C-alpha cells in the first residue's frame, strides 16, 4: 500500500479515541478504478488510520454496477460508509444507496466532505505550493500573492458548483482576493469566470482545482487553465485535512 505523501505544511488531524465496538469505516470513492485513484484512496486511508489506530478502514472504488461496494458490504454486518467526495455527486450517491439497500446489515451512509473551511485551507496550500500565493508558516494566512484573482473549479455539475461556492467564499477571505467558482466540466464557465475577474481588475489569475485529482480526466485541468488564460495549482489530493474530515464524518455517525 502506498505511503502517505509528505512535504508542504500538512498538519496532523486532532487525536481521536476509537469508539467501543467500532464499526468498520468503508471509504468509498466513485470509479472507474485506475492506478492513481486506487493509490489516492489507499493513501487517504493510511492518513486516517494513523490518527485513529485500530480502526478497520476498507477502501473501495464504486464501479457503475456497484459490485465492488456490494462485496465489501457483504463481509461486514455493520459499517459506516463515508464517501470520498468533496461535494455533491448524484450518480455516486445513487450507486452507494442502491448497494446499501441490497445489502443485509446495519449500514450508515454519511454525507460528502464539503463544503468546509479545511478544504479552503488545502486549496490555499496548493496555491502556495505552485507559487501562486504565499502563506504565513504559522497560521497559513496569505501575506502576499502572485495571483490577483482565483477561479475555483470543481467537477459534478451545477449542484457541485453551488456547494463549492461556499468554500470559494472561505478561500477569498483567506487570500483577500476575489474568487469565482466554475464547472471544470464546462470550460466556457471557467473562461467566463476568468473574464469576469479581469473586468474586476485582476491581471494574473490562478486556477484552484477543487478536485481530488485522479477523479478527473488526465490533462483536463491544464487544458481548461490554458483556455481561460490561468495558471493552475495542483488538485487537493491526499491530505491530512481530507483524512480529518473523513474521521469527523465517521465519529459523528458513531455518535
UniProtKB/TrEMBL annotation:
Gene3D superfamilies: 3.40.50.1400
Domain of life per record: Bacteria
Stated name of the protein: Cobalamin biosynthesis protein CbiX
Organism this protein belongs to: Embleya scabrispora
